[in-house]
Request: fold
Amino acid sequence: MAMDWRKNQVPDMSSNMLLYGDNALWLPRLPDECADMIYLDPPFKSDQVYNAIYGGDDPLLNAQIQAFDDTWRWNSKVEEKFRADLDAGVFPEDLEDQMRVWYRRLVLTKAQVKKKDQTARESLMAYLVAMAPRLVEMKRILRPGGAIYLHCDDSADAYLRHLLDALFTESGFRNELIWKRTSAHNDPKRFGRIHDVIFYYCKSGGEVTWNPQCQPYDPEYVKKFYKYDDGDGRGPYWRDNLTAPGVSNGDAGEPWRGIDVSAISRHWSAPREACEQLGLPKDMPTRQKLDAIDAAGMIYWPDKPGGMPCRKSYLKDKKGVPAQDVILDIPPLKAWSAERLGYPTQKPRALLDRLILSSTNPGDLVVDPFAGCFTSIESAEANGRRWIGIDITYQGIAMAIDRLGKLEGCSDYRVLGSPTELSAAAALAEESKRQFQEWVVLGLLSRYHAIPSPSQGADGGIDGVIPLRPLMGSLDKDRDRCIVSVKGGKPKALDVDEIIGSVTRHKAQMGMLVLLSQPTREMVKRADAAGRYTAGDGKTYPRIQIATVETLMNGTTDDDPELPGF
Reply:
């Protein structure tokens, strides 16, 4: 079993944090009731593998890298984990009862079920076994009154709703938000599936934060009602009522400007919005308020004698329509969207802004346990909230670092979960070869702007590519690159031969072999024999370079690989 090198990395609640690793390991280390809001966009149980796209015209630089695997399998290991959670009392009573019911129905009941259908049922149970204990931890860290938003689709939304009901009770339910995530679909033998679901719950026992948000008016609504404009620079307005139902015995019930509205069982009403704009005292008599509003040119008088005056309600003073539970005004990201990062399930920033602004105040803590490309964290930072983002891939952490670096005035934050010692790097390599390679390419080689290449399948021994910087205009813009190969096992001379072959096959200028262990003498000899590369600045560089994880972790520039332009 690989060592848990993260156990000594203690979350510092006084700082914003990016946490690299499984949220099942990080959530239990967060204090009780520390979060004001949790947003999670977990795997949807879609039974697909999702890739992130790194752009570039060069085929080597235009790679699709696995972002996450949303396929689930029921096996003895999963069943053992489920039984251990039951024995340990991980689930509250209602949730435990529900999990046992699902286990009997989805796993134990196999009569007259096709093998394909049974596999799908067991896959769903494996997904629920993964999600349930994580949601238990999320409830623990959420403060009383705090909000949790769970983003999903129809793959498992009915089951996730049951999980949330069991944890937060039906009284904790606030909304089922519908977000149109794509344009029309032509799904075979069914209606087109074009929306996501966001379940909004609040934890009982505390005050709920709610800051109403508004969405833009429908253009047709504006065209129909805001059709008047006096040409005085105030813009279009609609004519609103100055009266309210019922007879009043006070000043509001007296005639104003010769008009007695009590005769039609109504009384005068000074619009609050206009009074606030003019700074009128709350205790000012109603008719005096109407005089002040009229003097400001905010009342329309019809030409017809005896006609009823109306308030001019200006479009410029309106915030919009109160946000509804069907979200149509926030479109999904298009391929050409400037915001788009190439992450497969990236959500628009405006969607996260709406949720975070609705349920938190400045300084509140937002936690995202499945942060992905960290849109929620960017939103929290930009809106003055504290934040903690967790992701199991270093690819996600690297995206977060890049996004936060582009925010003006970004607050300080800590990154926990990355190996800080060679033994921890070895443990990561043992835990996940792919994650080790991503950490090396996106983390240790970030100073060279390295881009990951597919590390599963026929990658030809290429784990990353470093676009070399053209010097003096003499480098071929289509081929100025250094191929990276990462090896976490025992080094061997054949590794050098493989990267030489990759450099030659892809017509690259250079190659870099990154080793977890020290290279052998034969490896150094073969690398030296590969010759040198002359860059546009006239300098020569070893065509094949060998670097060690230890050297890159130490960050001593004297021992760094030599690359043109760096």
Remarks:
- The CA atoms of residues 355 and 460 lie 44 Å apart.
- Residues 49-68, 471-475 have pLDDT under 50 and may be disordered.
- Residues 219-317 form one domain.
